[in-house]
Specification:
Elements lengths: L2 E4 L10 H10 L5 H22 L3 E4 L7 H8 L5 H4 L5 H10 L1 E3 L8 E3 L4 E3 L6 E3 L2 E2 L11 H11 L4 E6 L1 H6 L2 E2 L12 H18 L3 E5 L9 H16 L5 E5 L9 H4 L6 E5 L7 H5 L7 E7 L9 H15 L4 E5 L18 H4 L5 H15 L5 H16 L6 H8 L12 H12 L16 H11 L5 H22 L16 H4 L3 E4 L6 E4 L2 E3 L3 E7 L6 H9 L6 E5 L1 H6 L9 H21 L4 E5 L13 H18 L7 E5 L7 H5 L5 E4 L7 H8 L4 E5 L11 H12 L7 E4 L9 H23 L1
Helix pairs in contact: 1-2, 6-8, 8-9, 12-14, 16-23, 18-19, 23-24, 27-28
The structure holds methionine (MET) and zinc ion.
The site of methionine has 13 residues, from loops.
Enzyme class: transferase
Organism: Arxiozyma heterogenica
Pfam family, one: Meth_synt_2
Length: 767
């Protein structure tokens, strides 16, 4: 019999139980024991769900209160001294590393003030991990034994699980050197780190674990030779240790072929490869499976929500069986299911036809099981027939094809993606219109999304208040935000985005060709979840989406208000895309819809328009090569299609956050002003890359993911530091990202200090 495996299950709970619990804990509303109890309940429910679905190989240690990489940092004591010194309980140290912590001293607790570690995108997904940060003083040791505890917890429920750990090479390679140890190559710590893997794996074996899933996702990246070599060092060492569980070396999100030599012949029990993302790697990847090793065939998509095609998948798995025999093949999800919503059955409002095309994490359990049964020769004909029916219906659906949209995309020409004049010509015209001072200040768009806003949005959704009442409410929120910005004296104002639940979903809901869920949450980072809309068909904009709010905001102030849109790439990346046409076409369809919106805003008197592209970087194909080169061209083109229809003195802004963006990619957009994440960087080389770039740049000066308030001195020092490398004439001042997750109090204090810092330099440089 061919076994079925699931590499990990969403840990947020079917109704976001984890978010509610962690946030309640942070706010002091529940105790740590209550928090842990919620975690335990979620784990138990997930394991039982998988067992009841008939999954043979179920993961444990896929749970995390914040992030699985951060868990490892704490487990291995990769805790920078600035956190360790407070001697907090481990869970609080973990949260402090993840989100920063600032609290005043009380009778029982000392004061804490520490920023969060860097947060980075998990490969090309919209999940973010907390970057391991190593220094010369890092002393590896085990703090607790989370993987063992959770394994035992499942065992107690009568469920044998396969613990999952991110492997040593990925853990080091995904990390970085801390500020005080910039000469440190994290990989040089491998020898010191490996004994901890041995120790934890021994404990797992002693607890009864037979197999472990060790994730080495960096295998899908271009790796320098020393990183490639590290696989041999690491896994040979683990292979030499007696009494460890069987290691299943796991990769996902791409092809391993360029790194095949590095993992060939390792003393592991088997390999897992992602054949959803990289089916073409089959022959080569399968060729390294040794006589006593298994191949886990990742065939059920862990990253998208489309129903699996059973016939096609079974045929694929059968190729592996023909080569290796039934005993050595496992049918698996391509990656952890962390990136998909929990359960399609929670969707009550979804069109029945569409629902029949989708599969969420819970449904995917049945998919792996069914495919495994099918290739084992069990009779699953009813399931196969229903599946074939659904696949066929989707291909032929009238919800999908729109000839007018297809024709418009076909007629796109170069002119559409080029501004009327180059930046050098536009700049003086814009300067004349706006007359900004040096170091102009602005924010990135959203202001705190208070409880009141959420309550009113829900009331409106449920029909408890009328459209008119809701509009009044939104206007009052906009007014509040405008007055606030005037009061603290920002230069370019925003309307605050109170009407938006989410920057992509809000537009998705107004674009034809999109479907959206009511409960399809996916973890983005920590307790932040997103509900990606689903691109089901050709995309178009029936009517203006954001004009009303921006125009209202502009009507009540003399200062310039910038319109706020989400760019085509971000709309694409933060949605579940179609898998039946390419991403470029979907991006261009979105770009055309947004172009109409940009032009409508301009006509309505909004002369600064920001088109956010925070997901530009995450869309970049993971490896160098033709696909990546093509992406950088079409992604920039999509942005320019959206933004090039405006007059020269209309100012286009764009915004990027949480990503190591290549300045080249930013430049290709030709936006007049770009804001980039900078609160956790102070890399002069990075700044220098922008020195010769004529367009203007806003450095994100504080971390909006953290409630801590930077002082005036902190802002001043930061700006001073950037000015060593970057000229004052092109320097904008702004936060790192939107403020929607923050409270009002800290927002007021932070922005006030930020504006004061800008004014300080304004005076200094005007002399
Ligand atoms: C993740 S980027 C967010 C940009 C958006 N305009 C906001 O301020 O919320
Ligand atoms: Zn942002």
């Amino acid at each position: 019999m061919v076994k079925s495996a699931v590499l990990g299950f969403p840990r947020i709970g079917p109704n976001r139980e984890l978010k509610k619990a962690t946030e309640a804990y942070w706010n002091g509303k529940i105790s740590v024991d209550e928090l842990f109890k919620v975690g335990k309940e979620i784990r138990a429910a997930n394991w039982k769900l998988q067992r009841d679905a008939g999954v043979d190989i179920i993961a444990s240690n896929d749970f995390s209160f914040y992030d699985q990489i951060l868990d490892l940092e704490v487990l291995f004591n990769v805790i920078p001294e600035r956190y360790a010194k407070y001697d907090l309980p481990l869970i609080d140290t973990l949260f402090a590393m993840g989100r920063g912590l600032q609290r005043k001293a009380t009778e029982t607790e000392k004061a804490v003030d520490v920023t969060a570690l860097e947060m980075v995108k998990w490969f090309d997904s919209n999940y973010h991990y907390v970057r391991p940060t190593f220094s010369h003083s890092t002393t590896f040791k085990l703090n607790g034994q989370k993987p063992v505890d959770e394994f035992l917890e499942a065992k107690e429920l009568g469920i044998q699980t396969r613990p999952v750990l991110v492997g040593p090479v990925s853990f080091l390679h995904l990390g970085k050197a801390d500020k005080d140890s910039l000469d440190l190559d994290p990989l040089s710590l491998l020898d010191k780190l490996l004994p901890l893997y041995v120790e934890i794996l021994k404990k797992l074996a002693a607890a009864g674990a037979v197999d472990v899933q060790i994730d080495e996702p960096v295998l899908v990246l271009d790796l320098p030779q020393n990183v490639q070599d590290a696989f041999k060092t690491a896994y040979t060492k683990l292979g030499q240790e007696a009494g460890l569980p069987n290691i299943i070396l796991t990769s996902y999100f791409g092809t391993v072929v360029p790194n095949l030599e590095a993992i060939k012949g390792l003393p592991v029990g088997g390999y897992h490869f992602d054949f959803v993302r990289a089916p073409e790697q089959f022959e080569q990847a399968a060729s390294i499976i040794g006589d006593n090793q298994t191949l886990s065939v990742g065939i059920v998509d862990g990253r998208n929500i489309w129903k699996n095609n059973f016939a096609k998948s079974s045929e694929f798995v059968n190729k592996a069986i023909a080569k290796l025999g039934q005993d050595r093949v496992v049918v698996a999800t391509s990656s952890s299911l962390l990136h998909t919503p929990v359960d399609l059955e929670n969707e009550k409002n979804l069109d029945a036809e569409l629902k029949n095309y989708f599969s969420f994490a819970t449904q995917k359990l049945t998919e792996v099981v069914t495919i495994a049964k099918n290739v084992s020769g069990e009779d699953v004909s009813a399931a196969l027939a229903a599946n074939a029916e659904a696949i066929k219906a989707r291909t032929n659906s009238s919800l999908i094809n729109d000839p007018a949209v297809q024709a418009r995309v076909a007629s796109i020409d170069k002119k559409m993606s080029t501004r009327a004049a180059p930046f050098a010509t536009r700049l003086p015209l814009q300067q004349k219109r706006f007359n900004f001072p040096l170091f102009p200040t602005t924010t990135i768009g959203s202001f705190p999304q208070t409880k009141d806003i959420r309550i009113n949005r829900n009331k409106f959704a449920k029909g408890a208040i009328t459209a008119e009442e809701y509009e009044k409410f939104i206007e009052s929120e906009i007014e509040k935000v405008i007055r606030f910005q005037e009061e603290i004296d920002l230069d370019v104002l925003v309307h605050g985005e109170p009407e938006r639940n989410d920057m992509v979903q809000y537009f998705g809901e107004q674009i034809k060709g999109y479907a959206f869920t009511t409960n399809g949450w996916v973890q983005s980072y920590g307790s932040r979840y997103v509900r990606p809309p689903i691109i089901v068909g050709d995309l178009s904009r029936p009517k203006a989406m954001s004009v009303k709010e921006s125009v209202y905001a502009q009507s009540i102030t003399k200062k310039a208000v910038k319109g706020m849109l989400t760019g085509p790439i971000t709309c694409l990346r933060w949605s579940f895309p179609r898998d039946d046409i390419d991403q470029k076409t979907q991006a261009f369809q979105l770009a055309l819809a947004l172009r109409d919106e940009v032009n409508d805003l301009e006509v309505a008197g909004i002369k600064i328009i920001q088109v956010d592209e925070p997901a530009l970087r995450e869309g970049l194909p993971l490896r160098e090569g033709t696909e990546r080169a093509a992406y950088t061209v079409w992604a920039a083109e999509a942005f320019r299609i959206a933004t090039s229809g405006v007059a020269n003195d209309t100012q286009i802004h764009s915004h990027f956050c949480y990503s190591d963006l290549d300045p080249k990619h930013i430049k290709a957009l030709d936006a007049d002003v770009v804001s980039i994440e900078f609160s956790k960087k102070d890399d002069a080389n990075y700044i220098a890359e922008f020195r010769d770039y004529p367009n203007h740049l806003g450095f994100g000066l504080f971390d909006i993911h953290s409630p801590r308030v930077p002082s005036l001195e902190e802002f001043t020092a930061k700006i001073e530091n950037i000015l060593k490398t970057y000229p004052a004439e092109k320097f904008w001042v702004n936060p790192d990202c939107g403020l929607k997750t923050r409270g009002w109090e800290e927002t007021r204090e932070s922005l006030t200090n930020m504006v004061a810092a800008a004014k300080h330099f304004r005076t200094k440089y005007q002399k």
